Amino acid sequence: MHPPIFLWAAGLALAGSNTACLPDAVDELDRKQLVNLVAGESYSIGLWRNGDYPAARLAARVVQIIIQERIGYKVDLKGPGALTIDGFFALMGCSQPLNGTDRGCGPSVTRVHINVEVWTEGYAEAWAQVQADYPNKAPKNLGNMGYSGASAAYVPLAVQEKAYDVESINLDFYRDYNGSRQNPGAYFAHPLDLDLSKLLPCADTALMSNELMSGYLNLTGDSAGVVVDNVGLVTGKCFDGFFWYGPACRDNPSTCLTWFTGGTGWGMGEILLKAAVYNIPLATAVASSWGNYVNLPAESNVMLYWWVPDSTFLRLQPRRITFPEHDLDAWAQGDRRSAAKDLSVDKHVSRDLSDLAPEVEEFMNRFHVSLKAVNEMMLNQMDTNDDDFDVACRWILSNEDRWTAWIPEKGKCFSQFGMYSENDKNFLQSRQAISITCRACPSGSYSAQLEDSQGITHVCQECPSGSFQVSGASVSCDLCPAGSYQNETGSLGCNRCPAGQYQNEEGQHGCKQCPAGATTLLLGSNSISDCGCKAGSINIASGEALECIPCGDGLDCPFSSSIQTLQTGLPSSGEQLVTRIQSGYFATISDPLKVFRCRPSTWCIGGTPGTCAGGLQGEPCAFCPDGKSWTGNECTDCGAAALGWAVAVVAGLAGSGGAYFFVNAPVTAQARPFKTGQMAVGLAVNALQSLALLGLMSAKWPATFEQTSSSLQIFVLDMDSLSLSCFVGGTSSISYVATAFVCPVLLSWVGLCYALSQLSCFRKCKSQPWKWPFALNTMGLGLQLGFGTIAAVSLKPMMCYKHPNGRYSVLSYPTIFCGEDGHGLLLAFGIGLLTLFVLGFLVVCSYAVWNLPRWSVEGKHGKVQSFRFCTSNFRLDSYGFIIPLLCRGLGFAVSIVVGTNLPPVQTGLVSIVLVAYTVVQASLRPWKAPAINLADTVLSASLLILASRSLQEDGDMEAKLGEHFTVIILMLLLACLASLAVLCIVGVIVQLVGGNWNRILALGSGSQDPAKISEALKQCAHALLEIENAYLREKIASINSYDVIAILNFINVIGADFQDENRTALAPALNFSQGSGIVGSRVRMVTINARLSTSAGAVDPSSSIAAQEPQPQPEPPTPGNDDLPALSEAQEPPKHNNQGIASNDPTAESPDVAQGDPGDAKSKIVSTVF
Prior knowledge:
It is a single chain. The protein has about 1150 residues and is α+β, with helices and mostly antiparallel strands. The chain is about 40% helix and about 10% strand. The protein has 39 helices and 38 strands. Strands 3, 4, 5, 6, 9, 10, 11, 12, 13 and 14 form a 10-stranded mixed β-sheet that branches. Strand 28 (about 535-540) and strand 29 (about 550) form a beta hairpin. Helix 12 (about 370-385) packs across helix 13, helix 18 runs parallel beside helix 29 (about 880-900) and helix 31 (about 930-945) runs antiparallel to helix 32 (about 960-990). The N and C termini lie far apart (about 120 Å).
């Protein structure tokens, strides 16, 4: 219990008992009591006061005076209760309403009947529980008593007006506290200017609450504003011992304004979140006592935590700071960035009051006092220091027109009220009803005067469309402001115009539509100027007009984009709404909507029209100004680049001429280390060419692959990054022509060197003249090595990609537009290069592959030698593999041409080319060295994975995964080439020291002792001869088909390669293999040579057998015999000049095949082919 409170209340009642307020007050002796016929007793009306604070006391006094002195009932003040919930139980008749553990509720008579200043919504769960548990005794809520209660952040009126006068800042609106645009702290006291002795240290405030600060951290992510200890507890970070600084002023506390509160931090959780979310430069301060909380705001300008109704800071005339409308769901989740909900301040009556004193309940129904009136009474009390009775009395006497309408009178209703039928429970529009009372007009209606034969009264009418009334007891409706509308009657508010509409007039029932293609950024637009083109479209009209068209590819068009914002680069509305050209695209200043796509994309950085990366020029960005060259990041002065290119040209010519002496070295059946190294170099070049060609595809690759492919463009003769423009000039046409002439010039140079070597002046210098077949072989090997590059260069003019503006550019030369000026020259050179050096070379190689066996048999060694590049790298039974190899390079280039604007087509065609090549290569294993076969398979498989569309970035795959996987594949390629290089180097070293190099290059196979193999082979032959034919046939018929093929291949080898000088011992095996239908390349070559040889009459058919490749796994050479061809143990390498191939001197003569011993002819044919 609270003796001091009850003594005060008793004294207050005594003080007012002998004094009347109204001059015509009902005499105290004439005042009635409630008569409870059921209980058989009478008693005064009990009026409960909700707490000992001015608003509750004054409201209760007003109700008490009017009921006593005008309606005529005795009223006793009860309570006060410490909490609103206490009043619930008091009105139910509970004997101990203040006892939280046992309220004493039972079948008793209630002595409390009225409760005002009730914050029902603050105790919604308890109210619902009371209604459910005591349906017959629970109090009745007569609704709002005229105002709502709220706790929020407030700014003193003087501070608000000063900020508005100086900078037109509305400090009663949260957005004007944004520290990035305003400096609101200039109008408030700095936290360190406060008397720190009046403040609580951080350690004693709610900043130390783990629950509060954890929620703050989760919602804002502001880790700099909290401290997390080693067990995970989160507390607020304390600055200067007393304050928490918001993110907006944490780096510069001098800009902080002070938010001031009491207790241990009332409202702390809400204001911290708002400060972080809305960028408010705020420092929190907590008063160390109630007295300091009350007095400090009078000394310093601070933002207040306050609530209404309350008199504490009423003299400061605080203005509530408006935040976004309360979000009920967000607050339920702890997210308090929206405004706190206003709580209805209600009036409650007991369940039996309507029976005991219906006119009193009707009075309470009509009782409706505004917050302004309550504030007036509280200010009056502060000014006069009078007691509650005197203050309430003065208000009653000066506002008779207000409260007289609360008094029930049949049919007579004053302004703000309307006639109401208690029987029908609705508002009346005439006096025809029998029982009429007056009630305050509800929200959405207004009180209209009605004059009839009985006089003047008021009725409640709904607000018409285009208007609203949020407050009850109103005499008029407010027109919907501009930017809003209301198409229904009786509305409490207006609807904001939806996006795409605006309303520039008040009181409208609809909104106006923005022009076609335009919309508004926000709801509630009040001017046509708020309309702008929708995101993804742009306004091409000038002035105030709007004409929106789609932006298309290459443009970022946010809301309200226009030609003007695109050209200036200024935001169209907010800071983030900037109309710009996307990175990788370009547009001219004069025609900014005609967008070009840049290749590569890094040359165009986007932004405003006319912007290129690193000083590039062109339409689109593609070349450097004269005297400068592109270095990968910017255009720089050429310097000595021209001289460097001159040296490179000389070095290239010297290298192509010197290649004659390296590529015409003797050929053996085995791929010796040096030869394997040559094949490895060729394989590496082909792989790098393929990577460069993949980079020309239109698909979007991960960044790592784009960078890798860009650095390899030299392999498709794209030499702009090597300052080619400094040597040949800056125009794209000249660059392409120079590139196209590389192949013809190098081939012509080799031919010129041959011609010069025939001159007598060179013979006098003891220089051996070049041989024309060797020169042709050198040219052919160069064409073979660079075939993919030449194919790509020849097809570049046909690789046309499409710009968003509809024009087409040459992929490698974007400033040359397909079908326009300059393109014809590129096409002429490209078609010429394609016809002569790509398709022509492919046709010639195909012709040579078809005729090589016949030329070999007929002894046309010059022709065979001229095309030795076709066979020197491959096993002779797969010498035609050069055709698939060439077709792969051509297929890559053709795939890019066909699908330049269709990435899926490109990747599909490239995948087909790689799959076909890999199948053929894996089936034939054509390379002489097993290591090269394995490496070729691995490289082809890796390229196939790279070419797959799944690795390219798209909406179905995260960029990081594609990036990492690409790095793995590129590393696999590099590892494969590096391993191959190591094998070749180790092989050369082993060969130099006389070791068994073949074991290394054959990857461990074919390194068995030939003597042991020979002995085992003869033992097997003797064993077979002893087996009965019938049993042998039965066993062969029962074995696996692949084992049968292995046996037949063995017979092929025996029949083709293991013949003695008499050529008769193995004739049956050879005849069987030829007649058995076995598709073995060795036998097929023997048959072809025999047939062509017979028809030509040049050489005995049997002599051509030895012209084929020796056994696939020859015996390792013995130390010192590196020149031994792997034909047989007995055969020595020919030291005579059989077309010079078996000789160590590439300049030796090449006489025709001598007639005579077939063995000699066989040796010559073998030497010629190898």
